[in-house]
């Protein structure tokens, strides 16, 4: 089970919590929760007790963020606050029916969450482990629902006794109302108005004050004007007494029911508390997912060493304040045993950079995504120590500098090799020379203790540390010399100028004053500032060049994407055209086939010479075959694809015959393009395809050369011709049904040899279904046979799987 740290600790002392505005971030998460207990947990969001615990928290958040991005967030809903009811049930108190109803709703929400996570256990293992609930609570939910209605009232079905008592109560009330109605009719002149009301829990009638002595009964009150006296008639007192007794009986039975249910709640109190925590935790994680969507937060790569490398990092709280689009992103870094000295103009973003780094370190320990792009890397720190802002205290008689030094002493004592130290305006507020020396000593000591240090400064001496000590690195916030304003962009490796005189000039300081100030600067100060300015100008130039290169790269990518879309559109157009042409060819061949059969039947009817009939059939076969541009139009795709090997990459050349599986036809290579595309042609149609989708076509020329060596010219001519259309006649059909397997195969193969000698291009072998032995043996025999170009099962019109159609060559 994951353990958490809720209270103030070394990881995030109270000073750090205030400096980094950690509670403001938790408030943003709490604002996105839906339950009162989820909101409370978010406002006290814990850190992982250990590195392993923080990694678990990060995995939970990663799963929640993925659900939010996919539009299927954790099932959270607005629920009533039941903390007080749970506490009273734990102390064996009796809950009201309304509290029981609220508990039932909470248990139902826990059930929905459990089922949601169970259905996605393999996808959400961390959330499943963190938010699973006890299934036995379902029994309590059913028990409460069986007794308490949705409006919180106890249902009649809660017990047979309650149903009986309520029935008697209704009947007694009805008798009471009837009796009162009769009395109003009988004493109409004494009644002020015709209605029944209630006073002191008893039913009364409004009687005129001047007539109440003539109306026997008990007075329970008068109207404000004194004109009406409310009297319980003597005749209904026994009925009223009976009604009161029944009401007491009903109340006692209702109390017994809620007491019984409260006892049931007490029996599973620990499971109920766990379910409440699971719902609260799921609510918080769902809120984290929503915050990640709103601010574009990502889970960083977690490093073993304590360090931060943030790409295009932003301060998350600035993202919450509109306009978020104006927040400048920067690359930021901090490493153990090293110090980054950030310099630059006032109000340029130095303090924001400090807080961004600190928040990233804390967010990772709390299992939260950070405001940096994917690819950022963060290690797990054990302490985040800060000194940001004015530390002056009137109560403790500490000046700003004194309070600053006192906090630095605490930070020096607490720093270790897994500590992140953030110092704003280090050693400021005192004599510049002594402050600079003190700051250098503090930074040196912090690095020696192994801390990852980031400090902002205006001291020129601290900027020079990086030139002689590899533990120090400069960073600067940008300053646009053309507009004399900060850019808020942090650049690593370059010191920044405070640009105080330039800023003063921009904000209206008299030129004479600024010029006099410049004369007071030492030659070394001027030289240093000039070097920094030149570096800034060069850096800005490089940034502009890089931005221009990135823009051109994006334009190139966009142009390539547009070209790819255009190529795909052309391919789709070619495919649609080919599809239409293929449909027309299929229709033409089917018509030719029907005409062939009709002609054949007429010839048979006329009893003409069989040789003439065969010759007519062959002629029609040749005519029909000229209609097809791609061989057999509808062979089974799976069988053809399985028989063909992919084209060997790099072997395609103009004139090769290839097979296109998705269109089920053979075609000739017309052109091989540089981008890997291939233009092929099938008759009058041309199509652009990729090399990867092509398959090899059978070498018919070699097959026919092996079997018909004496007729090379005819073999070569046929190898270039497309397969004939499968038109069945009696002359190209052999029936071997009912024969033994060996005899049937032998007879069929002899028929194939005769058909080849008689120049038949296609034959039909009828072997029937039977046990399938004859069919399988024959198909195995023709598979790879040198005189067989192609074979397939018959279509439904040709006899289905009881027929094999064979093309010869």
- The separation of the N and C termini measures 74 Å
Broad shape: flat
Highest-level CATH class of the largest domain: Alpha Beta
**Helix segment tally:** 26
State the helical fraction.
40-55%
Strands across the major sheet, in which order? 12-13-14-10-15-16
Q: Return the CATH topology of the largest domain.
A: Rossmann fold
Poorly predicted sequence stretches spanning 5 or more consecutive residues: 392-397, 623-637, 700-721
Secondary structure layout plus pairing:
Elements (H helix, E strand, L loop, with lengths): L3 E2 L8 H6 L2 H9 L5 H8 L3 E2 L2 H19 L13 H8 L6 H23 L5 H7 L5 H9 L14 H27 L10 E3 L2 E7 L8 E6 L5 E6 L3 H31 L1 H27 L5 E3 L3 E7 L2 H5 L9 E6 L3 E5 L6 H16 L11 E3 L3 E5 L12 H15 L4 E5 L8 H17 L3 E5 L3 H4 L1 H4 L3 E9 L4 E8 L7 H7 L4 H10 L2 H83 L4 H18 L9 H7 L13 E4 L4 E8 L4 E6 L2 E6 L4 E2 L3 H8 L4 H9 L12 E3 L5 H17 L4 E5 L6 H10 L5 E6 L9 E6 L1
Parallel strand pairs: 7-11, 10-14, 10-15, 12-13, 13-14, 22-23
Antiparallel strand pairs: 1-2, 3-4, 4-6, 5-6, 8-9, 8-11, 15-16, 17-18, 17-21, 18-19, 19-20, 23-25, 24-25
Note down, in words, how this protein is organized:
With 809 residues, this protein is α+β, with helices and mostly antiparallel strands. It folds into six domains: 161 residues, MutS, DNA mismatch repair protein, Chain A, domain 3; 82 residues, no CATH class; 200 residues, Rossmann fold; 107 residues, no CATH class; 53 residues, SH3 type barrels; 107 residues, Ribosomal Protein S8, Chain: A, domain 1 (2-Layer Sandwich). Helices cover 50% and strands 16% of the residues. The chain has 26 helices and 25 strands. The strands form six sheets. A six-stranded mixed sheet has the order 12-13-14-10-15-16, with helices on both faces. The longest helix is centred in the C-terminal third of the chain and has 83 residues. It is flat. The chain starts with a strand and ends with a strand. About 5% of the residues have low confidence.
């Amino acid at each position: 089970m994951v353990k958490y740290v809720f209270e103030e600790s070394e990881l995030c002392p109270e000073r750090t919590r205030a400096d980094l505005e950690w509670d403001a971030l938790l408030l943003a998460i709490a604002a996105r929760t839906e339950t009162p207990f989820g909101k409370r947990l978010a406002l006290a969001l814990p850190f992982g007790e250990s590195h392993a615990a923080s990694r678990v928290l990060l995995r939970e958040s990663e799963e929640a963020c993925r659900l939010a991005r996919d539009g299927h967030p954790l099932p959270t809903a607005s629920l009533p606050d039941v903390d007080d009811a749970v506490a009273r049930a734990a102390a064996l108190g009796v809950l009201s029916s309304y509290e029981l109803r609220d508990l039932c709703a909470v248990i139902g929400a826990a059930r929905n969450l459990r089922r949601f996570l169970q259905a996605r256990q393999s996808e959400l293992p961390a959330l499943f482990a963190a938010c699973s609930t006890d299934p036995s609570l379902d029994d309590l939910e059913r028990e409460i629902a069986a007794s308490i209605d949705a409006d919180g009232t106890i249902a009649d079905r809660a017990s047979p006794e309650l149903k009986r008592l309520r029935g008697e109560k209704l009947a007694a009330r009805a008798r009471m109302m009837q009796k009162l109605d009769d009395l109003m009719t009988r004493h109409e002149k004494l009644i002020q108005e015709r209605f029944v009301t209630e006073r002191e829990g008893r039913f009364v009638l409004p009687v005129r004050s001047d007539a109440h002595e003539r109306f026997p009964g008990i007075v329970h009150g008068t109207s404000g004007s004194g004109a009406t006296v409310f009297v319980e008639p003597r005749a209904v007192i026994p009925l009223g007494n009976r009604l009161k007794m029944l009401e007491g009986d009903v109340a006692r039975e209702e109390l017994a029911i809620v007491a019984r249910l409260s006892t049931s709640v007490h029996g599973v109190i620990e499971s109920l508390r766990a379910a409440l925590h699971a719902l609260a935790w799921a609510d918080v994680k769902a809120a984290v997912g929503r915050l990640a969507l709103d601010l574009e937060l990502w889970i960083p790569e977690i490093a073993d060493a304590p360090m931060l490398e943030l790409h295009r990092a932003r301060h998350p709280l600035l993202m919450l304040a509109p306009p978020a689009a104006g927040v400048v992103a920067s690359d930021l870094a901090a490493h153990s045993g090293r110090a980054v000295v950030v310099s630059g103009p006032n109000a340029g973003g130095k303090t924001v950079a400090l807080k961004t780094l600190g928040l990233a370190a804390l967010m990772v320990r709390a299992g939260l995504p950070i405001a940096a792009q994917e690819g950022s890397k963060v290690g797990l720190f054990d302490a985040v120590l800060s000194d940001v802002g004015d530390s002056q205290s009137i109560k403790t008689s500490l000046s700003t500098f004194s309070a600053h030094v006192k906090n630095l002493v605490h930070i020096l004592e607490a720093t270790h090799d897994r500590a992140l130290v953030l110092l704003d305006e280090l050693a400021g507020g005192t004599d510049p020379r002594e402050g600079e020396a003190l700051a250098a000593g503090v930074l040196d000591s912090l690095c020696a203790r192994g801390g990852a240090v980031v400090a902002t400064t205006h001291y020129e001496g601290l900027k020079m540390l990086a030139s002689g000590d590899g533990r120090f690195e400069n960073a600067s916030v940008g300053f646009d010399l053309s507009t004399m304003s900060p850019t808020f962009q942090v650049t690593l490796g370059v010191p920044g100028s405070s640009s105080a005189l330039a800023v003063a000039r921009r904000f209206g300081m008299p030129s004479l004053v600024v010029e006099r100030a410049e004369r007071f600067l030492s030659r070394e100060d001027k030289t240093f500032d000039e070097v920094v300015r030149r570096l800034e100008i060069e850096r800005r130039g490089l940034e502009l060049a890089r931005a221009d290169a990135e823009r051109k790269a994006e334009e190139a990518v966009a142009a390539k994407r547009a070209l790819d879309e255009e190529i795909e559109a052309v391919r789709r157009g070619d495919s649609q055209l080919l599809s239409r042409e293929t449909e027309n060819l299929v229709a033409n061949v089917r018509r030719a086939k029907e005409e062939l059969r009709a002609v054949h039947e007429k010839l048979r009817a006329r009893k003409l010479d069989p040789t003439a009939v065969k010759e007519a059939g062959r002629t029609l076969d040749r005519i029909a075959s000229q209609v097809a541009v791609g061989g057999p139009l509808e062979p089974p795709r799976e069988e053809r694809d399985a028989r063909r090997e992919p084209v060997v990459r790099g072997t395609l050349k103009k004139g090769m015959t290839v097979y296109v599986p998705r269109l089920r036809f053979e075609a000739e290579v017309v052109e091989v393009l540089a981008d890997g595309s291939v233009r092929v042609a099938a008759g009058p149609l041309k199509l652009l395809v990729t090399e990867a989708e092509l398959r090899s076509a059978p070498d018919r020329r070699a097959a026919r050369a092996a079997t018909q060596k004496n007729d090379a010219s005819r073999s070569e001519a046929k190898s270039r011709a497309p397969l004939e259309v499968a038109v069945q006649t009696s002359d190209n059909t052999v029936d071997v049904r009912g024969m033994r397997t060996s005899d049937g195969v032998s007879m069929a193969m002899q028929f194939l040899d005769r058909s080849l000698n008689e120049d038949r291009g296609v034959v039909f072998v009828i072997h029937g279904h039977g046990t399938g032995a004859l069919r399988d043996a024959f198909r195995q025999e023709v598979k790879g046979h040198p005189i067989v170009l192609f074979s397939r099962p018959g279509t439904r019109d040709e006899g289905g799987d009881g027929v094999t159609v064979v093309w010869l060559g």
